[in-house]
Amino acid sequence: MSFTNEDHEHPSKIVERYLSIFKADPNLGQNFLIDPSPIQKSIQASCDLGLNNDSHVLEIGPGPGVLSIELLRLGSKVTALEISQDACDFLESEFNHEEFNLLNEDALRTKWPHDITHIVANIPYGISSPILERIQDHHQTNPLSGVSLLVQREFAHRMAMKSIPKDRGPLGIALWLDFECEIISDVPSSSFRPQPDVASSIVTLRPISRTELQDVSRKLVRGISSWCFGRRRRKIRTSLRGLPRRLLKIGKWSSADWLQILDNLEKVGGDLQGFMDKRPEELRPEQWTSICRLISR
């Protein structure tokens, strides 16, 4: 089966057909796009990240397949992970495309194809954070060309660290290690059936190699920033004096080792002293890497 512009069906019709057979499962975060505009914006954003007919796309939670059809129309190979048996049954009855591989699997548990080039998805809001962790872990061993996601708007702002200091936190800093994050478009709740209680946004992740990460443990950057943001009202110096057990394990340091490291940092002076006297939301990602580089030494 192939898809052309002539046989294009409005996504609302596809979703309407699905909901006439099955109920949306709120436990799975099923809110289906019925507006073609955000679908096309998501596709265009993916094309800007190099998506073409040679690409292999991982789609997480295809639901009734309104996004899948557009990806296949581009000529891309699509591997779709769908945890809902109802959605899988519907997709199998709707179309059978040689470049569409549908798996009734949990995206957080199953093994992802090693050769995927892009990830495009309207992900369930309840698993946004663990999906992003999984994306970054996969990218470290099997580099991606780009990611386009539809997520909750507030979550998108934290991904992109849109407003400083409000949206600066461990999520945005972790993503910064691997990607340039950009909010492409906001999507109102009226674009979905059933309508979610919150607005959404399309976000892209463009891979980037950061020179700031040379000789720096990525795990340490994520661990220290997360630890300090968990104590947001404290200065960095005070938080690190709290003997963070998770951080000690990263460097295999004893408590005495860690206190000695901090004592040595106090003697460095210069910009580092200014960093240590700030609260976590005041530091740019590059400044976290500076702290971690000195700790590693």
Our measurement of the CA-to-CA distance between the termini, rounded to an integer number of angstroms, reads 58 Å
Order of helices and strands: HEHEHEHEEHEHHEEEHHHHHH
Q: How helical, in percent, are the residues?
A: 40-55%
- Annotated CATH homologous superfamily of the largest domain: Vaccinia Virus protein VP39
The average pLDDT score comes to 92
The CATH architecture of the largest domain can be named as: 3-Layer(aba) Sandwich
Name the CATH class of the largest domain: Alpha Beta
Fold and architecture overview:
With 297 residues, the chain is an alpha/beta fold. Helices cover 42% and strands 16% of the residues. The chain has helices spanning 11-19, 36-48, 66-73, 85-94, 128-141, 153-160, 170-176, 218-229, 236-240, 245-251, 255-268, 270-276, 285-296, and strands at 32-33, 56-60, 77-81, 100-103, 118-122, 146-152, 179-187, 192-193, 200-207. The longest helix is centred in the middle third of the chain and has 14 residues, at 128-141. The protein is elongated, with a radius of gyration of 22 Å.
